[in-house]
Each structure stands twice: as C-alpha cells, then as structure tokens.
C-alpha cells in the first residue's frame, strides 16, 4: 500500500455519521438503554434473551443479552 492509499484509508476511517439516540426499554421494564435505532430479537432460546441493533452507517452494533436464571428477581 502506498503513502497516498494509506492517507485515504485514514481519512475514510475517521468519517463518522451523526446519529440520534432513542431509549429502548425491555418488555418487562427491567432495563432501558439509549441506542440509535430499534432492537431486534434474535436467537430463540429458553436460556437467554438477545436483542441487537446494527449501526451499519458507523460499522458497529449494540447488543443486550439477558441470561435467564431460577431467581425471582
């Protein structure tokens, strides 16, 4: 990779798309989290509950995983 290409790569990696966060709440109200979109549930399991939002514009993701136990709380 040449010097010119390296500078272009650095410039592209510094680009960040502005986003607006909104509060997402668990169905049972146990947690609240601010993310730039809406959570989507994936993976059907009786052991845990996973929800994820993919921030495609900035190349990241937000995930909440709740592990189910036999606890009352």
Note the topology.
Blueprint: H1 3-13, E1 22-25, E2 32-35, E3 40-42, E4 48-55, E5 60-67
Describe this structure in words.
With 73 residues, this protein is α+β, with helices and mostly antiparallel strands. The protein has a domain of 51 residues. Helices cover 15% and strands 37% of the residues. The protein is built from 1 helix and 5 strands, in the order H-E-E-E-E-E. The radius of gyration is 18 Å and the shape is elongated.
Please provide a brief summary of the model.
This protein has 73 residues and is α+β, with helices and mostly antiparallel strands. The protein has one helix at residues 3-13, and strands spanning 22-25, 32-35, 40-42, 48-55, 60-67.
Q: What number is the mean pLDDT? A: 84
- In the predicted model, the low-confidence regions spanning at least 5 consecutive residues are none
Helix content: 10-25%
Largest sheet: spatial strand order: 3-4-5
List the total number of helices.
1
Based on CA inertia axes, which overall geometry fits? elongated
User: Distance between the terminal alpha carbons, to the nearest Å?
Assistant: 55 Å
Give the beta-strand count: 5
Order of helices and strands: HEEEEE
Largest sheet: 3 strands, antiparallel
> What structural class results from the helix and strand content?
alpha+beta
Give the DSSP E fraction (strand runs of 2 or more residues). 35-45%
Whole-number radius of gyration? 18 Å
């Amino acid at each position: 990779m040449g010097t010119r290409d390296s500078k272009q790569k650095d410039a592209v990696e510094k680009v960040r798309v502005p986003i607006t966060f909104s509060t997402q709440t668990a169905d049972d109200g146990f947690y609240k989290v601010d993310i730039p979109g809406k959570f989507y549930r994936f993976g059907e399991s009786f052991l845990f509950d996973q929800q994820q939002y993919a921030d495609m514009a900035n190349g990241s993701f937000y995930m909440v995983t709740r592990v189910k136990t036999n606890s009352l709380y």
